[in-house]
Design goal:
The protein has 129 residues and is mainly alpha-helical. It has one domain. It has five helices and no strands. The protein has helices at 2-28, 36-50, 71-91, 93-115, 119-128. Helix 3 packs across helix 4 (93-115). The protein is globular.
């Protein structure tokens, strides 16, 4: 199990780094590496992933109830994701398809959880009768 979490964490960090690199290349014109702003965002995102306590249960940071990114960094990563997400299919098609499938699977799982009755609510209703 620990190896799976480690693999998942590394895959997530690599994906975020690739998305930031694509964004930097296309928006900032850097061919050989990342600019200082994108390098700082990449380092920050990788550190956040390393420290995530929910890695074994979550799929994407956007689905997490605890937002560990600082407000400014959260907005920067949103911009990067919005730009790079649709373009990843051309750079890394296998990874992009895997990401889409995992996202759909997670949405289904979250939809099922939302439809499940809340245990506390049922307990109160039971106690009221």
């Amino acid at each position: 199990m620990a190896k799976q979490i480690h693999t998942k964490r590394e895959r997530e960090k690599d994906m975020v780094s690739e998305m930031i690199a694509l964004y930097c290349r296309k928006q900032h014109g850097n061919k050989g590496g990342l600019c200082t702003e994108c390098e700082a965002l990449n380092t920050y995102a990788r550190e956040r992933s390393d420290k995530c306590p929910f890695m074994e249960t979550k799929t994407f940071c956007s689905n997490c109830k605890v937002h560990c990114y600082q407000q400014g960094m959260r907005e920067k990563i949103r911009v990067v994701m919005r730009f790079s997400g649709p373009r990843m299919i051309f750079c890394h098609p296998v990874t992009a398809v895997r990401h889409i499938l995992e996202r759909k699977k997670e949405k289904r799982r979250l939809g099922k959880l939302a439809k499940m009755p809340h245990p506390r609510r049922n307990e109160r209703e039971y106690n009221e009768t």
